[in-house]
Amino acid sequence: MATVTYDHVTKEFGDTKAVNDLALDIQDGEFMVLVGPSGCGKTTALRMLAGLEKVSDGRILIGDRVVNNVAPQHRDIAMVFQSYALYPHMTVFDNLAFGLRNQKIPKKDIDQRVRRAVDILDLGPLVKRKPKQLSGGQRQRVALGRAIVREPAAFLMDEPLSNLDAKLRVQTRAEILKLQNTLGTTTIYVTHDQVEAMTMGHRIAVMSLGVLQQVGSPEDVYTDPVNVFVAGFIGSPAMNLVPAPLLDGAGGQDRIAGFRPEHIDLGNGRADAIAFTARVEVVEYLGDEQLVHMTRKDTPLQAKLPVEEKLGLGQEAEFSVPRDKLLLFDAQTQQRVRA
Amino acid sequence: MAVAVAKRRQARGLGNERTREALVGYGFVALPMAFFLLFFIFPVGYAFYISRYNWQIFKGPYVGWGNYRTLYHDAVFWHHAVRNTLVYTVFVVPLQMALGLALAVVVNQSIRFRTFFRAAFYFPSLAASAAIASIATYILASDGLFNTVLHHLGYHHTNAWFTQENTALPSIIGLNAWTTSGTMMLFYLASLQAIPVDVYEAAAIDGAGAWRTFWKVTFPLLKPGHFFVLVVSIIGSLQMFDQAFLIGGASGGPNYSTMTVVLYLYNQAIKSISFGYAAAVGVVLFAFIFTVTLIQRLLFGRAEVA
User: By CB distance 3.0 to 4.6 Å, which of A35, A42, A304, A329 could disulfide with A262?
Assistant: First the structure.
C-alpha cells in the first residue's frame, strides 16, 4: 500500500492539454474516484499513473518515489481495464498467474496466491476456462483477480463496470467496495458515472476539460459544490441551475441560482423559503417518489416530490425552495458565491 | 375468422419478404459463384477428364488410370520433381513465415518512416519474378556480388550458385523466401493489428518484457494468422514454377536439381505435348494440396483459435 501524488501533472497531445496542472494527493488505503464526462482527462490521468502515457510536465509519486520514468511493471500497481484486457488464449488460472510468473515467483507461491484470489472472488469452477467461455461479470471478476494476486501498492481501475448490465453493475460495485475494505489497498477508480462515484469513493475528484474542479467526500461535493460544473454534474436528477432573477429575491442578473430537485416543496413552504409558481409539464412516477418536470417563464425545472402530492399536467402550482438550500454562483466566472 | 385471414395474409407477406431477401442474396453471390465454378471447379473436373485419355494436341484414346499408373512408376517425377518440391516447401515455408512475421513485427512498431519500411519490405513481392531472377543470377554468379562479399569475409566460393547441383535449389529457396516475405508480412501485419492494444498494456503492467510479451501474448494470439499464412505459403510452395524455370530452365537443371512438380507438368504439357499425362500430374498435385490443407485445417481447427 502507498500514497499516490499527482504533483502539478500536465499531459499534452499536440496542442491539446488532456490533463492540465493536476494536483491531487491520495492517501494510503484510500478509495479515490476520478469522475467527469467523456474527454475530461480522467482516464489519461490514470494511464499516466500506470505508466501507459508519458507525463508532459509535473511529477507522479507512488509512496515517496517519483515514477515519471519508471516502466509500468516496476511501479507496483495493478490495473483493471474497461475491456478487462484478459489474455484470450490463456485459462483463468493462467491469466491470474501470468504477472506472478513474470516476476519469477516460485510456483508454490503462485499457486497459493492464485488460489487465494480464486477463493475471494469465487472463481473456483472457472479456473480452467478461457475468457470467451465466461460471462461479462465473470470476466470482470477475473480482471479483478488478476489485480489482487499481484498484491500491489495501488489498484487502478478504468471504468471497470461500464460493460456490465445495470443489475450486475450494482452487485459488482458492492463486491469491489467489499474487496477494497478487506484488502485496504489504495484504489484509484475512474468513472463517468456520478452515481458510481458517489457510492464508492472515500473521496471523489471531479474533472472537466482536463482540469480538476473539486476534491472532497461525496457528501461535500454534493452539498457544497464549488462551481456550476460540479453542481450540475454531481447528483441525479441534476441540480436546477437557473438565472437568479427567475426566483423572486434569489439574486441579481450576475448570479446563477442552484437548487436540487429534492429540496423543492409543493406550496409556499417555510417562512424563509423562496416561493414561485411553475407549470407542470410531465410527471414521472418513480415508485417511492415522483419526478416533476415543469417550466417557469419557459425555463425548465425539476422537482422530486412525495407521490402523495397529486399534480395535474398543465397545472400552474406554487412551489418553494428553502433559502438555506439555495446555492448562488457567479454568472461570469461560474464559481460559487458564498454569503 | 377475419383475424385468422389477416394472420395468414401477414404470414404470406412475411414469406414473400423472406423470399425476396433470399433472392437478392443469391443475386449478389451469383456472379462470383459463376466465376468460381467456371475458373476453379470446372478446370479441376476437366483436368481429371483429360487425365483419363492419351490426350495430345487433340483428344486421344481412353486409357482409364493408365496415365496415373505410368506416373506411379515415373522416377523423374518422384525422385526429382516431388522430392525437390517437398524439400523446397519444407525449407521455404518456415523461412517465409519467420521472415514475414519478423518484418511485420518491425513495421507494426511506432517507428519513424514506418510507411516507407512497409512499402520497401513489400516491394520484392510486387517486382516481376523474371526481373528478380535475372538480377539474382548476376548477384550469385561466380564473380558476382555475393561471392565477392563472401571473399571479403574470408569465405572463398568461386562457383555460380545457380549452376551447381548442390547449391541451385538452396539458392532458389533463399531467393524466394526473400521475395515472398513482403506478402507474408502483409498477412501477419493484418493479424497483428487485430490484437487489442489493451492486452499489450495489461502485459506491460503484468511485468512481461518485450521478448516474453512476444512469445506469450503476440505469438499465440496470431494463431489465425499463422494458419492463413501457413496454408497460403504451403500451397504457393507446392506450386513453385517460375523461379525454377527461369533459373534452372525447363529441364530443371543442373541435373534435375531444380525440377519441381509444376515444372514437370509444364514439360509434359508444352515440351512433350502430352496433355493427358500432364493433367494426371496436375490432379495428383491438386489431391496432395487439398489433403495437406484439410490436415492443417483439422490441426488448427481442433485447437481453439483465440
Answer: A304
Tens of pLDDT, residues A76-109: 999 999 999 999 999 999 999 999 999 999 999 9
Q: Quote the DSSP letter at residue B236.
A: H
Co-location of B21 and B156 in the same domain = no
Number of domains in chain B: 2
| Residue A61 CA to its chain's centroid (Å) | 22
Among B206, B209, B306, the residue with its CB nearest the CB of A89 is B306
CATH code at position B288: 1.10.3720.10
Bridging pattern class, strands A203-208 and A186-191: unpaired
Question: Are A72 and B198 within 8 A, CB to CB?
Answer: no
pTM of the model: 0.81
What is the four-CA torsion angle of A224, A228, A231, A233, rounded to 10 degrees? Answer: -150
Measured between alpha carbons, how far apart are the two ends of chain A, in Å?
A: 42
User: Reading across the β-sheet that carries A327-330, which strands appear in turn?
Assistant: A240-243, A255-259, A327-330, A336-337
Assigned domain for B57 exists: no
| B283 alpha carbon, distance to own chain's centre | 17
In a domain, B225, yes or no: yes
Same domain for B176 and B42, yes or no, is no
Under 8 Å between Cβ of B187 and B101? no
Across A97-101, A229-233, B244-248, least confident range: B244-248
